[in-house]
Design goal:
This protein is mostly helical and about 300 residues long. It is built from ten helices and two strands. Strand 1 (about 105-110) and strand 2 (about 110-115) form a beta hairpin. The chain starts with a helix and ends in an 11-residue tail after the last helix.
């Protein structure tokens, strides 16, 4: 498993145990994550990001230790990540005898740029791993967790790019990772929309005490998705005549159709029959326009409205 992923998981586990007041186990998770971050910082050319993440956990480690000492415990037994630490030590030891890692080249929108910064490369591998896992995952809850990690990686990469003064094609890199962030933000909200749609259809039951799904919830989610597509079109490096830009227009039309459908459903629930009929007719027009636009890309027919 990717080392940065393991450190993120240790941090997340530590936060959960911290909130539950399980001070000893939280301390073990936090210190394991700190050790991994320290070793990652030593293993890359510029380890500033990992040292910052290490330092962010120090107050929580100190608070755990304070509570453990208050309980009269003198020593915390156990340690997480022993095998991983040994593996990282091996990587660091080999670093002196091996050449620097190969440059990661990305081609996008008819342009290309190279990523030589080790911190960015590690985060990019973590991001790509999680994107693949999200595609293969069938659990909505797990997919949402993966998208949170993906978006966290996007934010960290953007921060590194912003801080660096040595990067070539800095604007292109910024725009590319903005595009990746928006794509995965949209995918995250589509998963949320599917969750709500499943509840509306009765495919899954609403848990006792859980929020009842309403058509208004899907209208709100599709509003957010449409805003993200609008933001994507503002990315400077996107080719206005390119395939991605045209695809944004197709998807915008498609999700406007879905939004229109659920607005009609809202009126139907409220017995506003005339408004519902007008909006259903509008949906029919939107569907014809969406299918016509999609045919230019030789797409398979879009699935029915969820």
């Amino acid at each position: 498993m990717n080392k940065a992923v393991v450190s993120t998981q240790s941090t997340g586990t530590g936060m959960l145990l911290f909130e539950q007041g399980s001070w000893q186990n939280a301390l073990l998770s936090f210190t394991a994550a700190q050790k991994i971050y320290n070793k990652l910082a030593d293993a890359v050319e510029d380890g500033t990001l990992y040292r910052e993440k290490h330092d962010e956990m120090t107050p929580k480690v100190q608070y755990c230790m304070y509570n453990i000492q208050s309980m009269g415990v003198e020593r915390v037994e156990g340690e997480e990540g022993g095998v991983l630490f040994a593996e990282l030590d091996s990587i660091i030891a080999q670093k002196a005898t091996k050449a620097s890692p190969a440059v990661h080249e990305i081609k996008w929108e008819g342009k290309s740029f190279s990523i030589s910064n080790d911190d960015v490369k590690i985060l990019l591998v973590q991001l790509e791993d999680n994107v693949q896992l999200a595609k293969e995952c069938t659990s909505h809850e797990k997919r949402l967790e993966l998208y949170e990690e993906i978006l966290s990686s996007c934010r960290d990469i953007a921060q590194l790019i912003k801080k660096s003064d040595k990067l070539e094609c800095k604007q292109l890199m910024t725009d590319y990772f903005s595009y990746i962030r928006i794509v995965n933000t949209i995918d995250r909200f589509l998963v949320m929309a599917q969750q709500v749609a499943d509840k509306l259809k009765g495919v899954v039951e609403t848990h006792v005490g859980g929020k009842t799904a309403r058509p208004e919830d899907l209208v709100r989610l599709y509003d957010i998705i449409l805003q993200n597509y609008a933001d994507m079109k503002d990315i400077t490096s996107l080719d206005k005549d390119g395939e991605i830009y045209r695809l944004v227009d197709v998807n915008t039309q498609f999700y406007r159709t879905k939004r229109c459908f659920y607005i009609a459903e809202c009126h139907l629930v409220q017995s506003n029959w005339l408004n519902a009929i007008v909006l259903y007719d509008k949906c029919t027009e939107h569907i014809a326009q969406s299918l016509s636009a999609a045919q230019s890309f030789n797409f398979p027919a879009q699935q029915g409205l969820c």
